[in-house]
Amino acid sequence: MFDDFGQLRILPASEYEDSDKIRDLTIEFNSSFNTFNTLLKNLINSLSDKSLVIQNAQLEALGYLIQLDSLQDKRLKADAQELAILKEKKAESFR
Questions:
Q1: Which stretches within the chain are classed as H helix?
Q2: In whole angstroms, what is the distance from residue 1 CA to residue 10 CA?
């Protein structure tokens, strides 16, 4: 079967045009899907990078909390020692 342009066709011209439209839509969909996939990969990479930054900040904050806790313990021990020394000196002064 020959079409209006003299080319040999298996399908009628109307179905051939429909198949061309489907092909074009498929190419457009594939292109859109690839664009979406690229954007999604970029988003995932960006979120992964941000999560590393957040994790590092959390670890740093935890380190500071541990330092503060240790410093507080040292101060409490020093205060207790000073109080014990003061009590000892008071007790010696009353003897």
A1: 13-94
A2: 6
The pTM assigned to this predicted structure is: 0.57
Cα dist from 46 to 28, 38, 56, 72, 94, whole Å: 27, 12, 15, 39, 72
Sign of the dihedral defined by the CA atoms of residues 41, 42, 43, 44, in that order: positive
- Tell me the backbone φ, ψ of residue 66, rounded to 5 degrees: -65, -40
**Closest listed residue to residue 12, CA positions, set 24, 20, 22, 2:** 2
As a whole number, mean pLDDT of residues 74-81 equals 92
Amino acid at 93: S
d(CA 24, CA 34): 15
